[in-house]
Structures are given as C-alpha cells and as structure tokens.
C-alpha cells in the first residue's frame, strides 16, 4: 500500500472532493492486497478517499505529486489486459515511480524459476509487485516468500483492484455508497467474488443472478452472508435476472467467457440466454439506475442501447482504474 500508507490516519475527519468520511484507526503500511476480504470498512473507505483525493489534486488541480520518486513496481502479467497495464504504468509514473512490465516470455512463474525464487529476487529489485495470474495460489506463494507487498492484478478467485474502481465510480456518481443496491447479472466469477467481499462493508445491498451451474464459490457465499448480517445489508442469490434487477440502483455484468474458457464459449452463450442487460432489464430497476462493466465487453452481455447510453458509467469506471491503483 505505497500511497495509502502515506496517508494513514487515526480517528479524524477526512474531507475530500467526494464526501466526508469519519474513519477509525487505519494502518496499511507494508500490507499486500490479495483480496478485499482482508480489509475492514474503514480501510476500504480510506483507500477510496485517497484515490478520490489523488484524482482531484492531479487531474483537476494539476498538482505534481512525486510521492513514489525512486520507487519501482514489477508488473507480472500471465494474462493480458489493456486497463490493468495502462492504469498501473500511467498511475505509477504520475507519482514519480518506475513501472517494469514482465510478460510470460520475461518471467515463467514456477516453470524455469520457482515462485519462491522469483519472490525473493523481485523483493531485492523492486518495491512492490503487481501480479495478474491464472491461479490465486500463485499470489499466495509470492506473498509467502516476498519481503515486499504483493498486489492482486487479477486471479481466478478475486479481482479487488477492479472493485475499488467500481465503487469509486459509484461514489462519484451518487455522492455516497451507503444504501445503494447493486445487482450483478452474469457469471459467478472473480469480479463478483470481490463485490461479495466488499459491498456489505460499504453499506451496499447486493443482489446476484447467475445461471444454474455458474454460482459463486460456496465458501465466498457463506462469507458474504456473514458480512451482510454483520453490516445490516441485504444479500440475494437467484437465477432470475429480473428478480435481481428489481429495485436496483446499479446493474453490473462482466464477460461470460473469461480467458482460458474459450473452448466453453458456445455452451456458455447458450447457458446465459436471457442474461443480456437491456433497457427492458432496467425497467424494473430504480429510475436513476446506472450500468457498470469492467470491460472488454461483448454485445451478448449488454446491448448497445444500454452500453452507450447516459446510464452507462463504463468509461469513467475504466479511468478510475488508474486512480485506485495508485493507492495500492
């Protein structure tokens, strides 16, 4: 948490460009960021506040903030990504740091060098590692042997940096997150898992519709139910997209066919029939409903009428990947 740790606070008011938040003790120094399951409400709110403050200062006030001068980040990409690479490289550079991009041709985790050795080598050459990997286990192995923080740029289980960007976008649009209802209509995947580990901590109700056989991980469902009860929010699981969308402020979906699932494409499109988000889906939502998608998007997931409408927040959402990655 290179930037967030510079703004550690202890029970005082933070007044930012988005909203006023009252936070308890927050200490993020030296911590890795594998899943938002490991962060409490105040810590997540702190991350969002710092991201919003950096955006305000750098984008709108044109301030130069070389807070990471002399620091470097190693970026391991087993999976390609426009937004994760660009947001990390531009964000880290804006703060005066040096990003180092490593593809699967540059670094073969666990193949020609063990994860243990890689973690130790990168700990001596950089100040932080962002890894976008196939298996969440790879991240856990890196954390075990690294002496520097590890950031999850995406794994098969979680995508926490995306969820920070999503909630910053909603916070900017609605002014506050508490009391919002978010409806996920799609696959029970890593992005949904991160929503499930975060929503209740921010006072957000979560309604989830997935086709039968595409449910979220059972252990994550149990944790989401526990968090919902703890924070007094609603959590619904259904296979009916209309039921999930009813009374919602935000409709969210994602790709139905993730990288590595290409051979399943035909079957998946068949199984997700009726899950495309359209204006008809939104007709049962609240009048002010908006739409999110982490991209890249396919038309079978959401039609053009919604995707390119004023209700769509997908492009501010994509930009906010840069401002939220800065706080990690």
Fold and architecture overview:
The termini are close together. A 5-stranded parallel β-sheet has the order 9-8-7-10-11. A 4-stranded parallel β-sheet has the order 4-3-5-6, with helices on both faces. The longest helix has 20 residues, at 41-60. By secondary structure, the chain is α/β, with parallel strands linked by helices. 47% of the residues are buried. The chain is built from 12 helices and 11 strands. Helix 1 (41-60) packs across helix 5 (160-174). It has 2 domains: 66-158, Aspartate/ornithine carbamoyltransferase (Rossmann fold, 3-Layer(aba) Sandwich), CATH 3.40.50; 162-320, Rossmann fold, CATH 3.40.50.1370. The radius of gyration is 19 Å and the shape is globular. It is 37% helix and 15% strand.
């Amino acid at each position: 948490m290179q930037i967030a740790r510079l703004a550690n606070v202890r029970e005082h008011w933070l007044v930012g460009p988005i909203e006023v938040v009252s936070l308890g003790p927050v200490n993020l120094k030296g911590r890795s960021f594998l899943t938002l399951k490991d962060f409490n409400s105040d810590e997540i709110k702190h991350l969002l506040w710092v991201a919003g403050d950096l955006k305000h200062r750098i984008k709108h006030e044109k301030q130069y903030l070389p807070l990471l001068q002399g620091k470097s980040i190693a970026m391991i990409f087993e999976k390609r990504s426009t937004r994760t690479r660009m947001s990390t490289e531009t964000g880290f550079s804006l703060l005066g740091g040096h990003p180092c991009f490593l593809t699967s041709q540059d670094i073969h985790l666990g193949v020609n060098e063990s994860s243990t050795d890689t973690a130790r080598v990168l700990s001596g050459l950089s100040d932080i590692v962002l890894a976008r990997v196939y298996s969440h286990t790879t991240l856990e192995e890196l954390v075990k042997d690294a002496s520097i923080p590890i950031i999850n740029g995406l794994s098969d289980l979680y995508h926490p940096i995306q969820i920070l960007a999503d909630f910053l976008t909603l916070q900017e649009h609605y002014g506050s997150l508490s009391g919002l209802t978010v409806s996920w209509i799609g696959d029970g995947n890593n992005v949904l898992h991160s929503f499930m580990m975060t929503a209740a901590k921010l006072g957000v109700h979560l309604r989830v519709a997935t086709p039968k056989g595409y449910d979220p991980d059972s252990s994550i469902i149990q944790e989401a139910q526990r968090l919902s009860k703890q924070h007094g929010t609603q959590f619904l699981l259904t296979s009916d997209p209309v039921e999930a969308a009813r009374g919602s402020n935000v409709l969210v979906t994602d790709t139905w066919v993730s990288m590595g699932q290409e051979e399943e494409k035909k079957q998946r499109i068949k199984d997700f029939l009726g899950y495309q988000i359209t204006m008809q889906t939104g007709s049962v939502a609240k009048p002010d409903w908006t739409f999110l998608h982490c991209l890249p998007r396919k038309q079978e997931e959401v039609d053009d009428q919604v995707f390119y409408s004023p209700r769509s927040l997908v492009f501010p959402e994509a930009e906010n990947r840069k401002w939220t990655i800065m706080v990690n």
